[in-house]
Amino acid sequence: MLLIHCPYCEEDRPEVEFVYGGEAHIARPLDPATLSDEEWEHYLYIRRNPRGRHHERWRHTHGCGRFFNAVRDTVSDRFEQTYKAGEPRK
Amino acid sequence: MMRFSGLNLIAQAFSGHQSWPEQWPDKAPKAAYDVIIVGAGGHGLGAAYYLAAKYGITNVAVIEKGWLGGGNTGRNTTIIRSNYLYDESAHLYDHAVKLWDGLSQELNYNVMYSKRGVLMLAHNVHDIQSFKRHIHANRLNGVDNEWLSPEECQAYCPPLDISPNARHPVLGGALQRRGGTARHDSVAWGYARKATALGVDIIQNCAVTGIRRGPDGAVLGVETERGFIGAKKIGVSAAGNTSVVMNMAGLQFPLESYPLQALVSEPVKPIFPCVVMSNTVHAYISQSDKGELVIGAGTDQYTSYSQRGAFHIIEHTLAAICEIFPIFTRMRMLRTWGGIVDVTPDRSPILGKTPVQGLYVNCGWGTGGFKATPGAADLLAHTIAHDAPHAINAPFTLDRFRNGRMIDEAAAAAVAH
Question: Which helix (H) or strand (E) holds B94?
């Protein structure tokens, strides 16, 4: 089980308190109606799925309830850092 | 290649089984091949075999970064079934089940396909409605599947607790009698042995590090740890690492890779006659011929390539197993392990051509690729040989995420499968 640092609670808490939220920094298009099929596909379905450094969202569901972002190595599962939602990509 | 037979076995017994010949030689790569398959699991080795056996393309190499059958082929819970809801999926998986039927004879290698039946338990009204819908859809597609009452479920699988006070009451079940299990390692070994006998080279411990493309964009071959190997056609059957391989060709895929765990108990005498799946509480269980209970757990929530998962996932599955089969509460577990599964947004595979000329893909089988091994291999070989998909895999394109023709088995089952 992962130990995850919540940047809002500023505590290391067990993974079962959190829900994974998928790849981070995917902004919802402001005007979906103007998107081409390819752009819409890219927004909805295409994922980087990297072997290594991964930017991802987590939600501290059974804690403060807030979304935040994390950088994790997908080979070792080790967290590099977590940071608050809205902060630039680390 | 030595043909296995009863006489052969007796003859070898006289020399204490010390003179069995090597079953497949480990080859050094040639400069170029007609076709390269990336990934020597059941799907990849099978594709190489069918290319040689059905389409006469024998100048084929299967390149594997680890050892043969060491990925998800050696890590699954060996369940075979084809009771999928949608027509496209039913045709695809039933194609595989039909091939499982004659596979041991065709390969002259015992893959131990055992039609012991796959029983899916219904625990609530939604399950009953969903399973009955599946049963009717399956029967329209010529796939066997039948409804059993709780008493019939227990008669078919005696360790089952069907008491109304159970934590997860059994309200009935859907049984596919042709479903069952096979020995996973034998599938990889059988295909490897027969493919090499037909001229296929299997190159292990040789990771692909790049895909070289010409000025027109078509593939020229693969860069590997042992140098460049040329090929006009490349089939990728790399499961959890598909995104990584596709990135080498400049493609991004609608895939995410998750750890999926399984575990086995200590071996005991035959107690469990079939395969039982409970989607609602997430428990898959069967008994191997060695006597171990083989149990499938769920995926972890986060993407990973670590080939290991969290313990609370196993705890969750074992809690469900102990409630449904109280007889197993004092069994001890022997080993747990994880594999990396590549999951598509609609939980159906991608099997066909890619936007890159000469690059073919077989991926996205998610948590249920083993059952499809012979079918996927056969269809990948067909697609490579004809440069066009077979009617069965034609709907499983990469384009469906753009044009919206999804095959949404995720919504149909509402769980990993």
Answer: helix B87-107
